[in-house]
């Protein structure tokens, strides 16, 4: 039973850097607090404790970060792949698999969509320009965010949450979903065909976005996804306490 008065939202982090610091973009924490959630940071050190983590949190965010090791989806290394961390991969892939077998609300962002897709048997495009060209810019140089349009599927649950079907998003990625496992449906795409969002067909609340809504903290439409996550987590917590 959750003993906290606010719904707890677990937020994945990077592993320790050279200074020994765990870190994550602060806007994740600020936005969850803004919408009434209690953020809990989850450093990727203890994959054996994933079940215990799911007993504590009411919701989860799989955050952005480095690329997944291509071995996790049976692909070859590409010169543009960077930031690979097997420790974080192992922790997040296990946590995602377990979480998707529960009713815990889950949101994946950028790397998070890759984690949730690969955890359920999907694969990735290792470098978007190689297959989709440069008609839509998905990342700046060097590693700067850009903006582009995304079309949300009109009858998707995501469209209902956002209240929009054509949105401008903040983008910072060079990889994307390739194969979509049967458990998921495509909820959004960019104009070049790159998959920009997935929603789970059977889980009560599981969405994965390729873009970065946490980098659009003043965009009312983008913030609705975090509000909906916290509300879903609150409902889960209330049902456990009832």
From TrEMBL:
It comes from Iningainema tapete BLCC-T55. GO terms for molecular function: gamma-glutamyl-gamma-aminobutyrate hydrolase activity. Signal peptide: none annotated. GO terms for biological process: polyamine catabolic process. It holds the Pfam family Peptidase_C26. GO terms for cellular component: cytosol. This is Gamma-glutamyl-gamma-aminobutyrate hydrolase family protein. InterPro entries: Class_I_gatase-like, Peptidase_C26, PuuD-like.
